[in-house]
Amino acid sequence: MDSDDEQLRGRIYGADHDHPGPKPGRSYAELVGGPLDGLLLDITGWRPEEIDGGVSLLTELGRFGPGGRAYDPRPGDPARWDTAGDSSDHLHSVR
Question: CB-based contacts of 31: which residues, under 8 Å, 6+ apart?
């Protein structure tokens, strides 16, 4: 793991750099694998069908440059979402 990866851990996807960490009273899913590994996704207020459908997230990070990456909730562990590859296969985008 390089220093860029270490700096991302515990940060919220899309959060302000001045306030990158989790906030009390919010619900988060940890992104696992891919270029966003270790980031937290704020899923506060999401309906179950939105969570079940996974998500497409934009990123400037990645092996092949910027683009969208898809993540799906892990069966049996909805607090962890695994990378599902390129976002072109997913319809739900993060708000």
Answer: 13, 37, 38, 39, 40, 41, 57, 71, 81, 83
User: For residue 89, what are the CA distances in angstroms to 3, 39, 51, 75, 81?
Assistant: 31, 21, 16, 19, 16
Q: Are 29 and 19 in contact (CB under 8 A)?
A: no
The tens digit of pLDDT for each residue in 26-64 reads 999 999 998 889 999 999 999 998 888 888 887 765 555
What's residue 21's pLDDT?
84
Element (DSSP H or E) covering residue 48: helix 48-52
CA 24 – CA 69 distance, rounded (Å):
27
9 or 3: which carries more pLDDT confidence?
Answer: 9
Task: Give the pLDDT mean for 66-70.
Answer: 70
| Residue from 44, 42, 51 nearest 11 by CA | 42
